[in-house]
Write a structure and sequence with these properties.
This protein is mainly alpha-helical. 41% of the residues lie in helices and 0% in strands. The protein starts with 9 loop residues before the first helix and ends with a helix.
Length: 156
């Protein structure tokens, strides 16, 4: 946990000062270090157990090492984030329907697989809205948030 992550994770380190990656640069401006968010020491130890200096760094993180409670400690709960993002238009479908990304309606599928912060948020990404849309598109047709429009429902 005392390592200099930027020695190997150069892409992620570069995103911290990249203005086109607002969430990472905002964390950098606040003085947030890698290990303040990547807190799962057991997973990090396991993933780095066989890594030796000079090894080629992984091109993409393959495990989640950010606990949602870590995000909540600074940003607040989903309910608090829903209030803060009530006017967000980041998730607007092709028909003009806008959904608040932090106010996910309760239903059988959403409740069975609740989204966590890292489901949509990749701090090192340049396109947060696209990342969130990819998460939604795992179940919803891309560009459609309206319920009752899927072909399975129309056939009933």
């Amino acid at each position: 946990m005392d390592s200099d992550c930027s020695m190997c994770h150069t892409v992620e380190a570069a995103s911290a000062t990249d203005a086109s990656c607002p969430q990472a640069s905002a964390h950098e401006a606040e003085g947030v270090t890698c290990v303040q968010c990547h807190t799962d020491e057991a997973v990090l130890s396991t993933e780095h157990a066989d890594v030796k200096f000079g090894d080629k760094a992984a091109t993409k993180a393959t495990v989640v090492t950010v606990d949602p409670e870590t995000c909540i400690s600074c940003h607040g709960t989903m309910e608090e984030m829903a209030a803060k993002t009530a006017d967000s238009t980041a998730l607007t479908d092709d028909k003009g329907t806008t959904v608040n990304p932090h106010d996910v309606p309760s239903n059988e599928k959403h409740d069975a697989n609740p989204a966590t912060c890292t489901s949509c948020h990749n701090n090192h990404s340049k396109d947060q809205a696209k990342d969130a849309m990819k998460y939604c598109a795992q179940c919803h047709h891309r560009g459609t948030f309206e319920c009752g429009t899927c072909h399975e429902l129309r056939e009933r």
